[in-house]
């Protein structure tokens, strides 16, 4: 039987310190966030999303971003990323020494309004000076597209709406573009269709899959995306997270589960699963609850004998 070739190597972008923690009710101290980022970088991620320079009134948990970026002991070769919705955010990310800035838009108008208080076209206009400044300062530029597989307000999102925003992000000069399932509604074939539509506008090797696991489909979606050539995925240690502007959306797929899958498939990630399990146990303890990573919990139980 002919099976589609899977990549031999994938890049996992750890988004727990940002996407994961932004949705927590309890304020975590900068100390805890610094330790989490440091543990994750030591585990081998080449890219850790560590901060978001957004309005603290909108997302209070990210108010410590400047302190976190300033205090982390940097791991050589690790890219520390920060979300920036506008020039105010960019200036803060630059001052904090972010290696990569992430402009974040949406494929649905309704979500764009709820999340960043402007239309898709207005968001791209806000991103233009950010993109120019990132290039001037030699920072990597990533674009993130929310609701690419479905929107909590609008429902279906047409494939061409995704293609259109991918093209606009490409024209901004993005090095990488994230196709995000904000509310975790996609299933395998849909994932392939969206990724292939996005790949008509931008090289598939630079597209990333950002899957929330709300309906338990994230691992299947990652596998399906790999079948069509995607080799960059986002995940969150202990499955932390959600989005404050997508009611009911749960966290990103758990990093431990993704690493376990990749190990089983013989796909290289460069990340040490055991150290990620430890980081997951650490942050779960800080939050006072059990990790929702199935693989993380299974490995911890096995260790305990
Ligand atoms: P706005 O109210 O339209 O903006 O918000 P404004 O320019 O009129 O400014 C209003 C106030 O915000 C002012 O303060 C500004 O200084 C301040 P005031 O005078 O009222 O005291 N402000 C800022 N403060 C800090 N940093 C900034 C900044 N910009 C303005 N950069 C804005 C527009 C985009 C700022 C606001 O809507 C916002 O911050 N939204 C937060 C959105 C967010 O962080 N969402 C979660 C992350 S995205 C996500 O999770 C999805 C993703 O994971 C992919 C997926 O899963 O879909 C990436
Ligand atoms: Mg997200």
From TrEMBL:
<dbReference type="Pfam" id="PF00682">
    <property type="entry name" value="HMGL-like"/>
</dbReference>
<dbReference type="InterPro" id="IPR000891">
    <property type="entry name" value="PYR_CT"/>
</dbReference>
<keyword id="KW-0456">Lyase</keyword>
<protein>
    <recommendedName>
        <fullName>hydroxymethylglutaryl-CoA lyase</fullName>
        <ecNumber>4.1.3.4</ecNumber>
    </recommendedName>
</protein>
<keyword id="KW-0479">Metal-binding</keyword>
<dbReference type="GO" id="GO:0004419">
    <property type="term" value="F:hydroxymethylglutaryl-CoA lyase activity"/>
</dbReference>
<dbReference type="GO" id="GO:0046872">
    <property type="term" value="F:metal ion binding"/>
</dbReference>
<feature type="domain" description="Pyruvate carboxyltransferase">
    <location>
        <begin position="10"/>
        <end position="277"/>
    </location>
</feature>
<comment type="pathway">
    <text>Metabolic intermediate metabolism; (S)-3-hydroxy-3-methylglutaryl-CoA degradation; acetoacetate from (S)-3-hydroxy-3-methylglutaryl-CoA: step 1/1.</text>
</comment>
<dbReference type="InterPro" id="IPR000138">
    <property type="entry name" value="HMG_CoA_lyase_AS"/>
</dbReference>
<dbReference type="GO" id="GO:0046951">
    <property type="term" value="P:ketone body biosynthetic process"/>
</dbReference>
<dbReference type="GO" id="GO:0006552">
    <property type="term" value="P:L-leucine catabolic process"/>
</dbReference>
<dbReference type="InterPro" id="IPR013785">
    <property type="entry name" value="Aldolase_TIM"/>
</dbReference>
<dbReference type="InterPro" id="IPR043594">
    <property type="entry name" value="HMGL"/>
</dbReference>
<comment type="similarity">
    <text>Belongs to the HMG-CoA lyase family.</text>
</comment>
